[in-house]
Fold each of these.
Amino acid sequence: MQFSRYSSIGWVAVLAIGAGVLSAQPAAPAPFIAHQLKANVYWIEGGGGNSGVIIGDKGVIVVDAKTTAAGGKELLDNIAKITPKPVTTVILTHSDGDHVNGLAAFPAGITVIAHENNKKEQETALAAGGRGAPPADHLPTQTISKNKDSRKIDGVKVELLHWAPAHTSGDLVVYLPTEKIVFTGDIIATQMPDPLIHLEKNGSSEGWITTTKGIVALDTDQLVPGHGPVQSKADVQARLKQAEEKRAKIKELVGQGKSLDEIKAAVGDPAPAAGGRPRFASFTDVVYQELTKKS
Ligand SMILES: [Zn+2]
């Protein structure tokens, strides 16, 4: 089947963004774009976190499912342009809504694999209810508690890896040892130079460093991040080195009794956007909280 790099839906969205600029309307969401990595492996950007698409013998394995039911449907439409095989399995890299909630559009009865802590976080969010809660009828059907789970799914060798709490306590890194491709989830998210840690989901800056060391030790040079373009191993090593150095500097300054504001100024933390608080705690906020927490 011929595969077009830009889906027609993507072009419509590009035109909509152009029209939005001209008429000063809010910009349309980023278009869906499918990128091929290997004969049987793609990643699709747009509509939330990046998704992986792995084509097996009889069906398709998807990594992460976009933010909304509409996004999940657009993802399935894009997959249908790549292969006529049905989606049978979804692997979730973590519990954030921009990777999970699009499952609402997925067929009933599919296998959903996640780390056990991811499932707990989804159950907590579901009990809290409201906007952004995960779809109740697509909770994980299989949970992973081991740090390394090697299996074959539909003829494809897959390793599901967890070293420590990092972005969240339920992170799962998806490694394809034959194709040498890694899906990192938001352990790597390129819209920010520093790691993004959800302390409210028991993420950890130290665990992030442990996890990222584990990732760069894998035999790979194609790493699909949770957000942003494919990274090389050198890209991820540079990100790791920067985070290690920044964490060490923050630790040193905490040891000298400096205040959070003094530390932020010293390490060059980005200033909050005018008129608002940043959406997420910065890496400096997180490390400071971890190191000054009274246990
Ligand atoms: Zn995300």
Note: The radius of gyration is 19 Å.
Amino acid sequence: MKRLFLAAAVLVTVAAVFLWSQLPPKQQALSSTFSDGTVAGVVHVHSSRSDGRDTPEHIAHDAARAGLKFIIITDHGDGTRTPDPPVYREGVLCIDGTEISTRDGHYIAVDMPASPYPLGGDARDVVEDVKRLGGFGIVAHPDSPKPELAWKAWNAPFDAMEILNLDTMWRRRVAEGWRGKAFLQTRLLTYPFRPVESIASLVLPSTAMGQWDGVARRRHVVMIAGADAHAQIAWRASDPISAALAIPIPSYESLFRTSSIRVRPERALTGDAKTDAAIVVRALRAGHLYVAVDGVATPPAFELTATNGLGTVRMGDQLDVDGPVTLRVRSNAPDNFTTTIWNGTTAVIAGKHEKDFTVMLPSGPGVYWAEVRPEGKRADTPWITTNPIYVRASEPLPSAPPPSPVTEAVPLFDGRTTTNWQIFHDATSVGAVDIGTSDSGDGVLRLRFGLATGPVASQFVALGVETRGGVAAYDRLSFTARAQQAMRMSVQMQTGQSRWERSVYVDVFNQSHTIFFDEFRQLEGNPAAAPNLADVQRILFVVDTTNAKPGTLGRVWITAPQLQK
Ligand SMILES: [Zn+2]
Ligand SMILES: [Zn+2]
């Protein structure tokens, strides 16, 4: 008995010593040597409205405890829900956004009214819709190791991207194999003792910096962090996760204490939720912010400015090329932390220990940003990551060459009859086509559709035309369209085996559309696989549940559909 007790005591001691040796370093408490004028907040939070654990009220309570000034809740959705108006809860400004699933990854929309139709399908189209609706769009977890969560639409004109997503961090560790999994398991053991430090120790630099650089060279793109806080994790599930299998860590509060964005508003917050939300969102749009991993050291103070002959600007801003540029960095970084100045993905200067220094950079364009990391064991952890200052040539970048002029066109519609046209629909939806007249007296194809009500199944109504021998002699499809209510219509090319798609936004007034065949993407199988144009049997104008709710009734008028080259 005594022996058993002794053995148990030894075991417990060994376990405790092991645990102690594995504890991540304690968060460093910093004195703020100066104020950088920023407010702390967290973006990308899930509530119980989608797959998060708690209500927005409870989340705000946790945010208040973590010292945040604002949170942006982004439950999964299709953009058709009217967002809650901004509100202060326990001193925390709560802004309501949404996270939209696209075929090419997840896209967060903030500062956007309800969409008249569900947003989904290709990311390029969702990005376009969010922009048209006036929203601010953030690419979520672009570097997720889960293929369906990683971003694939790098040419889409998104506004911002997450360079840090806390949810992606544990997924990346799992994807690393046994070493990463073992590290993650150790962190699960240390979490109860040092939750914030345990999560912070999982943070790695983004693997999407190359793609970010490709975009930032051409245009403004905001670097931001997303907590992707659910306050639960489920080992096997993805995003959205199944709450039934989930364990309730990491908590909202610990995630909020681990990492934040520090936003510099153009003026002090007023206490009025609507006004302050506008101020915060304006600063987000401008990229007037940096990302901090507070779990390493907090509270941070950081400033990056650039000066040349034209003046001085701050992070997120642009400076025209005009002689050498002087970058100035000010921070309250601990002594054993170093600052690196990057131009895109190239380090311009590294290993700076000074808390206040300037760097002289040669004249010419550059995308300059700063990063601060601890030295030693934690050198992988980016403590501070700033938005860049863009130094641009004052002449605009060469724009894409205009499309080649149309040299040949064949009409798909004779302006009088629907003989070549056919309606297709699923068993329960209804559709019809007839001939209308445009204001100029031309014949117009009028498609009437009614998607069946009930849950989303495969409701669709399509208006199709035979191509008679493929479309290989042409390179594009053009038509003019308007709709009863603003909508997104899918235009498809069909071969014997497969369909290719490009969706277009159709407004309530006539607009002409041209879709080049190389813009179509395959719906089944590899999206990038090109169709054999000689095999295209039919062209279809489709309304389906990707961008229409079950039960939607409507009309679309299509004028002068043509194959062109
Ligand atoms: Zn997501
Ligand atoms: Zn999310």
Note: The pocket of zinc ion (ligand 2) is lined by residues 44, 46, 99, 140, 228, 239 (CB under 6 Å).
Amino acid sequence: MKRITVALFVLFLAVGLAYAKDYMVMKKAGNYTVHVMMDKNPPVTGQNKMEISIQDATGADVTDAAVAVDYSMPAMPGMPAMNYKAKAEVKGSRYLTNVDFSMSGAWNVNIKITRAGKTQSVKFNVDVS
Ligand SMILES: [Cu+2]
């Protein structure tokens, strides 16, 4: 009996830790490796903090890019398409911004990285709770 209780407790702890982890997406954009983190996992309706880090082909942090986040939800019954933009500001080796999801459901996120006149994109979907 005691052993089962301990096992359950350990399981709960493991599940709790898994859920407590930040939301993270890693993708390639041209020669860049891009990590995107959000402070809520799953992301929530309303404000979410987003952190973006970009590494070049040598693994060095890229801090001189212009980074913009477009996020949108396609039209659905009773709701026109929604499109928002956020500009990310560089702080240290990361780009920070807030994204404000106005409703729950599937959102498309497009991160645009412009450097030396060239733009690369990272696209992914987020399930907002
Ligand atoms: Cu909607």
Note: Helices lie at 2-20.
